[in-house]
Amino acid sequence: WLLGALALTYLGFSAATVAYQAWGADIAPDSAERTRFTAAREGFGLAGVVLAAALPGLLAADHNTGLGRLGWVLPPLLLVAAVTTLVGVGPAAGRVAALAEPVGASLRGALGDAAFRRLLAVFVANGLASALPATLFLFFVADVLRAESASGPLLALYFVAGAASLPGWVRLSAKIGRVTAWLAAMVLAMLAFGGAVLLGPGDILPFAVICVASGLALGADLALPAAMAADMGERLRRAGACFGVWNFLGRLSLALAAGLALPLLALFAYQPGTESADGLLALSLVYALLPLGFKLLASVLLWRWRNVLDSLEVRS
User: Fold this and answer.
1) HSE of 251, CA atoms in CB hemisphere, 13 A
2) What letter would DSSP give residue 101?
3) Phi first, then psi: what are they for 202, rounded to 5°?
4) pLDDT tens digits, residue range 61-111?
5) What is d(CA 20, CA 26) in angstroms, rounded to the nearest whole number?
6) Which of 230, 15, 232, 239 is nearest to 106 (CA)?
7) Extended beta strands in the chain, E state
8) Which of 246, 170, 239 is closest to 23 using CA atoms?
9) Is 14 in contact with 247 (CB distance < 8 Å)?
10) Quick check: 195 and 144 in contact, CB under 8 A?
11) What's the Cα-to-Cα distance from 235 to each of 61, 248, 314, rounded to whole Å?
12) What dihedral angle (degrees, nearest 10) is formed by the CA atoms of 214, 217, 219, 222?
């Protein structure tokens, strides 16, 4: 039952996400507007994440009971959102008509573009850098910091910082360009996250500072590359295909991060709840330093291809 429910949920979510992202790409007239649309979309998405995390505790004193009640809250919210969208927007098509072609041909056309492939390479490397700590966050807080109860507030701090930073990244990208702004965010993330390897039991406050700083960088990761992908989708008149590939690789990054991090920790004899110094050192290194390697790779690739990617901005 759970497997079937999850499959249907993610199938529907993926279909809605691709359509939603392609729609935003179609209706925006230039790169600046697409960046604002993308930032707004991601900001409300982060607000939803924080709300979903907080609701179980607000709906019941017991967490499991609260999760059960959340299942009754979500369907009406989805219905209200769907009705609002259909009534408020109507069936109007996007500003730019997509090419009428089979799915396979559309995907081949998107992947055949060299600039899009370069953006995807940066996106995957950067996605792995973000997905590795996301996979190991709870283990790190519980075993290295010895502060399992603080994991919820620390996660909320990270996402709130990400949402709050979105308007700033939009303004900065308008002044210096999206590629340069994204590079600045990568540097901020590397400077902030490198200190995590030095933390130990009780270092909640320094880790909270790291969560805020890396959360600020998260805002750029969410808004800027997706806006660049929207530009490319419109240039190729294949926004749906571009965002289909984009979302596939985003989810693949999460799977690859788990497939890389967990066996690597097992190889170094780390077990959740362990007090072994070697196991905890391995956890700190995989949690903090391995993502830095992927983030550095992403920044090098973005710098190398900055002129190509910058030239694709569409200005009104």
Assistant:
1) 11
2) -
3) 85, -5
4) 887 888 888 888 888 988 998 898 888 876 655 555 555 677 788 888 888
5) 10
6) 239
7) none
8) 239
9) yes
10) no
11) 51, 20, 9
12) -100
Both tokens of 31, joined, read 């790169």
3-state DSSP of 138-205:
HHHHHHHCCCHHHHHHHHHHHHHHHHHHHHHHHHHHHHHCHHHHHHHHHHHHHHHHHHHHHCCCCCHH
Tokens of 95: 């500003």
Task: Check if the beta carbon of residue 281 is closer than 8 Å to that of residue 84.
Answer: no
The burial of 13, by beta-carbon neighbours within 10 Å (0-12 exposed, 13-18 middle, 19 or more buried), is given as: exposed
Structural contact between residues 111 and 117, judged by C-beta atoms closer than 8 angstroms: yes
DSSP 303: H
- Which one-letter DSSP state was computed for residue 30? S
Could you tell me the CA-to-CA distances from 270 to 156, 239, 261, 279, 280 in Å, in that order? 27, 43, 11, 4, 7
Long-range CB contacts (< 8 A, 24+ apart) of 274-277? 274/143
Q: How far apart are CA 189 and CA 134, in angstroms?
A: 14
Q: How confident is the model at residue 127 (pLDDT cuts 50, 70, 90)?
A: very high
Place of tokens 């788990």: 258
Residue 97's pLDDT is what? 54
Q: Cα separation of 249 and 247, whole Å?
A: 5
Distance separating alpha carbons of residues 84 and 134, to the nearest angstrom: 33
- Evaluate if pTM is beyond 0.70: yes
Q: Give the amino acid at 262.
A: L
